Structure formats: C-alpha cells, structure tokens
Amino acid sequence: MTLSFDPNSLSLPIGHLVGDRLIAAEGAIPMRRPSDGKAYADCPIADADLVDHAVQTAKTALKTSNWGGVHPRERLNVLHRWADIIEQEASALAKLEALSSTRPVGQLVEGDIAISAEQIRFFAEFADKEGSDLVPTDDGNLGMIMTEPYGVVGAITPWNFPISMAAWKLGPALAAGNAVVLKPSEMTPFSTVYLAELALRAGMPAGLINVVLGDGPVTGTAITGHPDIAKVSFTGSTQAGSAIMENIARTGVKPMTLELGGKSPQLVFADADLDQAAATITAGITSNAGQACVAGSRLIVEESAAAALVEAIVTRMKTVVPRPTWDATAQFSPIISEKQRQRIHSIVSAAISAGAECLAGGAHMDAPGYFYAPTLIAGIDQNSPSLTEEIFGPVLTLQTFRDEDEALSLADHPTYGLAAGLFTRDLSRAIRLTRRLQAGTIWVNRYGRSRDHILPTGGYKQSGIGKDLGREAFHANRKSKSVLIRL
C-alpha cells in the first residue's frame, strides 16, 4: 500500500480543540501548500477570550480528574495507549502533516511519527520512577525535596517538525501531571489537532490537552502572558523567544524552556573518513531542506582536506530531486513559504555579490512549489549574513583552518550555540574539542539526533534556556519544595 495521496482529498480538522470539542472557527490566515504553492485552507486565530476558555478548561480538568494526584501508573498507562494509537494512525497523521508542511510523507511515517510515539512512551516511564527525595540531615530531623506539577503549561511549537515538537512538549508535561494549552504554528496546525484528538481516544481526560490555533502576536501572546499559565515551553526563533521573555516579564514571572535558533558548525579534520563526513554533512544541511534549528550550516574543514571533501559534497548535492511531500518517494523538502525562499535567495545573492563563490546551487529549483537548490558558498566575508544569520534553508558555507585553535575560533559564533559536529579519527582530539566547543549538543563522526531520548537537547548563548528531551525535560515540568521535619 503506497503512502502517496491526492492533496485535494483530505478532510481537515479546522478549529480549536478545547476539552473534548472541536470548536469550528472562521479562518483568518491564508495557507498555501509548500509543495505546489496552492491555497488550500485558512487558519483561525484564537483571541484572548478563547485562550482564557482553554486555560480554564485545563484547570477544571486537572481538578476533576486529579491527573497530578492519581497513581502515577494511571498516567503512564494512558500515555502508553496514546502512543499505541499514534502508531496505528500513522498514515492519517502523516498525510495531514505532509499536506501543509515541509515533511515528506514517507519520512513522517518511518521517522517523525514513530519517534514521537517512542518519546511519549519514554516520558510516560518517568511518571512512576521519578519523584521526591529524602536528603541527608542529622538524626533529629527528616529532610525531603518534594516535587509536584506546575498546573497548566503553555506550549508553542514551530512549523518545521509539527508532530515531533508537539510530542516534545506534551509528553513530559502530561507525564509530570500537568495540563497543556498548546498553540501549533499557524502554517502547520492540523496534524497537531488530530494528535490531540487521538489522546482522547486513548482515555486522556478531556481538557488536559487543549489546542488553540492562531498566530504569535495574538494567540501566542495571550498564552504566554496568561496569569494561570504556570510554565511556558517554546521552540522557535531566537527573535520570537526574546519576545516571549519580554511578554512574560510584562505580565509576571514564570519558568520557561526556550529552544531557539542555531548556526551550527561542522568541523572536519584531515584524518577523518571523508566519504562518511561528506555524506553526513550533506544530509545535515539538506534534511528538511535545512529548515531545522540544528542544521549543520557552517562547514569548517582543514585546508589539506578541503578540495576532496567539497567535491564529494557538491556531487551529493547535485543528486537531490524535488518532489511534493505527498509523494511517497520524496526525500528533499520544499521551503515552507515563498517569502522564506526569497529571504534565503537574497542572503545567498548578497554574499555572491560581495565576492563569495557559489560552488553549488544558489537558485530556485525548476519544480512547482517553493524548492531551493542545495547550496554551497565559499570565500565569505566574516560579517556576511550568510555566515552570521540563521538562514533556515539548504545553504552551507565553507571556511578552512590550519590548526585546532583556528578551527575553534571559526566555530565559535557570537550569537548561537545550539549544536556542533566534529569529524576526526583522533579520540584525544575529539574529547579535547568537545570540552571547548560552545554548544549544547556535539556530535562526533555523525550529525543529527538519534532515538536515544535520554539525551537532552538545548543551547548555549542565545540558542535557548533549559532542555527538551531527557530526564531534564520531565523535571522541568515539576516544581520542588524543601521540607524539614523535627523528629
């Protein structure tokens, strides 16, 4: 059975899911399919009153279900059933997401959706295994660190990996005993609505997950500034993260987890396996057409290995074929919008006009939709936006170095520190440099996340605050109090 589908055949859950009801609403934001540029729906915008209704619904659900106070295995069992249903509905979820997003339908079923189900199960297991601690005191006292849910968590997810990012937020928050009001991106909302509907089928008490559609200025601002939202979790750009911090500061004080932008370096030493490095680096910038915060967008290679490595990367870049996301054979993604594609092209064109050399790509692809050719540019000025700004497209810059200190100097970015790649056969060098690289995640002789969900992700510098994934994400959804009892 093929996963390919007719993009005009899908029925969309257009509305806000509050409690157990899909609230139909008039669309206000025109939406276009990235794969062919055709208009297909309008996304509604939840105003402050609707957001407040969702928050109050979440508070009521927490109280009536006692979700944070039931036996932890009850939460675990519901989350496991949800993960099972997600896997059963993988095809339907994949089609909803592939229609509006940049994610190819085949990659969704085998990757994003299967991984999301795994992550929900991973966090479910914390429910009855992580809790309060007894701490050392003198014999006359009993000391404890007690933890409890925050209450209602506000979550905002981006358009580049809609289902995955929703699972990142919902899994730990629900396992920790909270309710969630979640706003998906207005560009890719419908798979998240359906994901939440599946939780109801799994027996999740109605109102613990509420999905409100809308934009950042209206809906996002209402969520992050709501006085009954106890914690905020956001994944997106550094600029948007700054705006969220400002809004929270204006309306009060609350904890937040922010996974933000990146401009990640990939350091390659001459002793590396260059064939493996070329394949990995190409995948690191062409996966989702470079539309990932951890995209390995800065190639920094030892001079003596540069020519051979560049030739291998360019050869691989030229094999990329644009196909619509609803084609089961598609591997390369379109850009999310024409506006974003024009931004990518303007940055590349400005670099070339300033003297950079385009070794591959540098143009729109000859295909329907918003495809942009995988691009490699060299000879870039240090102050060029192509080197300093997060492009969020399949654009790789090239720089060379002569020794470790120069490599580290080039790798260090003034703004971002989300991820880094390192390719070398020298184990001592690998350990030495991982200690010095300023990034929250470092991959050695590989690039990209694995299915080891215990590894947290988060950035240094302006790439974020706090961690997603790992036990850190679970603990970030519970607050602690210290208790000392005189015996």
Category by helix and strand content: alpha/beta
Helix content: 25-40%
Shape: globular
| Rg from Cα | 23 Å
Strand arrangement within the widest β-sheet reads 14-15-16-13-12-18-19
CATH topology of the largest domain, by name, is Aldehyde Dehydrogenase, Chain A, domain 1
Structural overview:
The chain is an alpha/beta fold. It has 2 domains: about 15-260 and about 465-485, Aldehyde Dehydrogenase, Chain A, domain 1 (3-Layer(aba) Sandwich), CATH 3.40.605; about 265-450, Aldehyde Dehydrogenase, Chain A, domain 2 (3-Layer(aba) Sandwich), CATH 3.40.309.10. About 40% of the residues lie in helices and about 20% in strands. The chain is built from 15 helices and 22 strands. The protein has a 7-stranded mixed β-sheet with strand order 14-15-16-13-12-18-19, sandwiched between helices. The N and C termini lie far apart (about 65 Å). About 50% of the residues are buried. The mean pLDDT is about 95.
